[in-house]
Amino acid sequence: MTEEEKMKEGLYYDPGDEVLVAKRMRAHVLSRQYNETDEYMVPERKRILKMLLPHAHESAVLLGPIQFDYGENTTIGKNFFANFNFTVLDCAPVVIGDDVFVGPNVSLMTPLHPLRFEDRNAYPKADGTWTDQERARPIVIERNCWLAANVVVLPGVTIHEGSVIGAGSVVTKDIPPHSLAFGSPCRVHRTIGEGDEVDFEKEALRGQDL
């Protein structure tokens, strides 16, 4: 079993494996190139994004700066929008559904490290290079979700359809569908539904009165 296969299966693996290092370096270079490309240079940004995120729908919009660990392990659906400073450590698969909004400074974090420093600290391999042991668990953001500013989603979490995660939340557990959840750790406060609709005609009239 290769180190990459172990990584994707959620087993402890060697992140210093030369194949994984090469893939991370490629993703880091492409992330930097994207960030250094001005926002108005749409064709060039799309070209870079297609290399970095081969499983992202062409309609996805990422303002940048962005940072992906692998890129190829992330799937993004239609009409995705990410504000500034979107970070994805996609050692395990990250799946984002259609019509997902992501605020600034949102991080999706799949890696896990041992709690004991004796197991966590870096160590030299036989060839003299240093590495450590880690594992990863997938993250799923289902369709029609909104993650507000400064949200951190931790390994193994699924945020189900239609949920809203409030600013500054640290999501440690699965969130049920159509939930308003916030806090650190993030907790469900209520279901989104009747009474949350916006009367846009009424709002337009209010705007005329200002």
What structural keywords apply?
210 residues; seven-stranded mixed beta sheet; 20 strands; five-stranded parallel beta sheet; globular; alpha/beta
Which strand-content bin applies to the residues? 15-25%
Nearest-angstrom radius of gyration? Answer: 19 Å
* Count of distinct strands: 20
Which sequence of strands runs across the widest sheet?
1-4-7-14-17-19-20
Mean pLDDT: 95
Structural features, described:
The model has no long low-confidence stretch (mean pLDDT 95). The chain has helices at 3-8, 18-35, 42-52, 117-120, 200-209, and strands spanning 61-62, 66-68, 74-76, 81-82, 86-89, 94-96, 101-102, 107-109, 111-112, 123-124, 130-131, 135-136, 139-141, 146-147, 152-153, 158-159, 164-165, 170-171, 179-182, 187-191. It is 23% helix and 25% strand. It is built from five helices and 20 strands. The strands form five sheets. A seven-stranded mixed β-sheet has the order 1-4-7-14-17-19-20, with no helix packed on it. Strands 2-5-8-15-18 form a five-stranded parallel β-sheet. Strands 3-6-13-16 form a four-stranded parallel β-sheet, with no helix packed on it. With 210 residues, it is of the alpha/beta class.
